[in-house]
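Thread title: Can someone regenerate the structure for this chain?

I was given the following input by a collaborator and told the matching structure tokens would be attached. They weren't. Posting the sequence so someone can regenerate them.
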Amino acid sequence: MKDVDAARALIFLKLGGSLLTDKTQTKAVRADVLHRLAEEIAAARAEHPSMRLLIGHGSGSFGHVTARRYHTRDGVATPEQWGGYAETARVAAELNRQVVQALGDAGAPALPIQPSASAYCRNGELSSLQVRPIRTALNKGLIPVIYGDVALDAVRGGTIVSTEELFAYLAPRLRPERILLAGEVAGVMTADPARDPNARLIPRVTPATLPEIANRLGASRGTDVTGGMAAKVSEMAALLQTAPTINVIHILSGLEPGLVRKALTNAATEAGTRIMRDASNAEAA
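Best answer:
Regenerated them for you:
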């Protein structure tokens, strides 16, 4: 593959909530990780100024902890639950402000985009979201920054939309070439490496091979109301089938210094796990 600068390719980059925060605590930002990643992203844009980039991030120990307390993902009905819905929105936006600030301090033109301002769901599935502000920001050379957030729901009252669900909605409309998911592990593993020293990296996943490895995908450590690694890989594998512009979805470690910058500027980076459309696509990448 050629460098992404060649065709002003659009890249979606997710910074995982477990990467940016300590999800075993409440509202605990990993400030050193956040600022290093912001510098890597800014450096990648400086190296390839025509790169078009949309960033999404998880809510980590901000939104997930609050949403878990009020069961917001499952629905919102009582006054207490609606209070929890509003609180979840506030803390998710609080982390977003810190991410955008770090990117701005590093020299990246980051623009916060609040999903809950326009997102609407039906029984837990995202059915509408305003895309024009995001598309316009991209066309003006800005970096829109979205995040896992609450959303009103026609059936449940309210719910949660993950970054992966936002990406799945936006991909057919914005047509990215690549999606990068940066987390705290090296990629998709056969087991949780924090618990199993024999855990191995799975370098390639295709829709055909997903069923046989699905039961081995490790769940998320800490609090995660959106399903952990198994749900993320399944969602991304399904997305490949509906978004033909995507060449590869790349899951990699954001804890390895320099790797996010390398992946942004060089599509042939081999580290991590690649989710491919089929075996022939995997061989070509």
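DSSP finds ten helices and twelve strands in the chain.
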